[in-house]
Amino acid sequence: MERFAIVVDGTASFAPGLERELDIRKLPLHVDIGPDSYTAEVDLSADEFYKKIAAPNVKPGTSQPSMGECRDVYEKLVSEGLRKMVVLTIASELSGTYSVASTTAQQMDGTRIVVVDSRTLAGGIALIATACARARRAGRSFDDAAAIAQRLAGKTRIIAAADGLEYLRRSGRISGGAALFGSLLAVKPILAVEDGRVDAIDRVRTREKATARVKELIEEKLPPGSKVNACTLHTNDPERARALGDWAQERFHCLEHWVAEAGPVIGARAGPGVIGLCWYRSEEVQ
Length: 286
Known about the structure:
With 286 residues, this protein is α/β, with parallel strands linked by helices. It is 38% helix and 26% strand. It folds into two domains: 5-29 and 64-152, Rossmann fold (3-Layer(aba) Sandwich); 157-285, 2-Layer Sandwich (Hypothetical Protein Tm841, Chain: A,domain 3), CATH 3.30.1180.
């Protein structure tokens, strides 16, 4: 069996224990809160993050890994005898991680490192990574796994509801938001992530209507019984996420599904109270 590594950036969202089970490695991403900087999931858990940003006037930010940090990850893998790597990063429109990971890879002599702009984030990246990991486990080659990653890039979909506008306003990374921000503050924006873009596609007034609208929009794209690989994400709202995940598994033929906290990097951009479904059609991985 050909040995190679699968690496994701720190926005990728997995079920607890899944990264370890599939041996998926991570590039660090950072969360900035006031003068302090933290590495997500290393020295800042999701619970700690939401406690810190609950204080008034706290404006969290995020930052990509440095070239030195990327090199540290690559060199550790090389020290383990893994000179081939598939690296999946958040969409280049949303972060400079792809550029940093690619530039660093070019400086690693004696390696083959394929860096793929996933064109998505969070659970979308994780779904591509698990597809690559299953290919590796089945004995498929490094080139096969890299081809799967490149084929799925831009084909994962995310539809989500945010609990408010303030964090999205601060992030500045959302298209179509001006109409939302103009007048109504007490609205729940509905977001779509597709091919590197995060678009505000609708707005509703309550959490219940937000959940219902998310389901409607998913059903517009997926006929009942469709075979999908999926995961349900949330930011500090596990109960609503589990309910959405249960609905998705009842409605569609999910070849894989998990529920995951999206983590501080996504929470810094969208705030707490986000729920959403990530998926790709299973036939797209063949």
